Amino acid sequence: MFRIIASAATAGSLIAAPALAGSMSPPPADPVPVAPAPIVMPSADWTGGFGGVQLGYGDFDLAPGGDDGVVYGGQLGYDYDFGNFVLGGEFDYIGSDASIGATEVDSVMRLKARLGFDMGNTLIYGVAGGARADTSIGDDTGWVVGLGAEYMVYENVSIGGEYLYHKFDDFNGSGSDLEANTIAAKVNYRF
Cα angle vertex 183, ends 179, 125, to 5°? Predict the structure, then answer.
């Protein structure tokens, strides 16, 4: 008899187990992962005037020789940001400590048009324009082309670098061309 009661109790617990296991409602759905909100960095607006300083290196050649040295100066300009590209102009003046033989290169003034690609806080640009070199044997005008880049460090401060190639044909009637390559680091305050 004990076996019958034990068998009946076991069978009853097996039958009742699913009924006592939980509710008839479906299990809760797995949580849906939510993507984090994208971090949007503020994009620089390159429109406006600017002024700054520069320091770099210059390599000057006037037949029959050449020299290199430090170049230093300042610049003033204005850019207009069209969204994907930036158009502007810049005037700069640099001094130099280079001497080509007995000819000292005192300064170079440049008036340049700038056309660049707006990459948010970075601006990559090309320049072309006119230049005037002042030396101990006289001065003359020529042309200048180059490439540069600027990065907006703060809302109104940018840093950058610029490479420029200058050419002055038949410099001051000497029969020789003056050529110059300059590379400079620049800091601009934008207002």
Answer: 105
Do the beta carbons of residue 156 and residue 188 sit within 8 Å?
Answer: no
Q: Is 89 exposed, middle or buried (0-12, 13-18, 19+ CB in 10 A)?
A: middle
Average pLDDT, the chain: 88
Per DSSP, the three-state class of 183 is: strand
Phi, psi of 148 (to 5 degrees): -155, 170
Residue 37 phi, psi (nearest 5):
-65, 135
Q: What is the DSSP letter of 172?
A: G
Q: Is the per-residue pLDDT at 19 higher than 70?
A: no
What is the per-residue DSSP string for 24-75?
SSPPPPPPPP-PPPPP-PPPP---EEEEEEEEEEEEEEETTEEEEEEEEEEE
Helix (H) or strand (E) segment spanning residue 148: strand 138-154
Report the DSSP beta bridge partners of residue 179: 61, 167
Q: How confident is the model at residue 124 (pLDDT cuts 50, 70, 90)?
A: very high
CA–CA separation, 8 and 25 (whole Å): 30
Sequential DSSP letters for 125-140? EEEEEEEEEEETTEEE
Encoded tokens for 41:
């960095």
Residue with tokens 């600027």: 150
The phi-psi region of residue 120 (left if phi > 0; otherwise alpha if psi is between -120 and 50; otherwise beta) is: left
SS3 171: helix
Model pTM score: 0.78
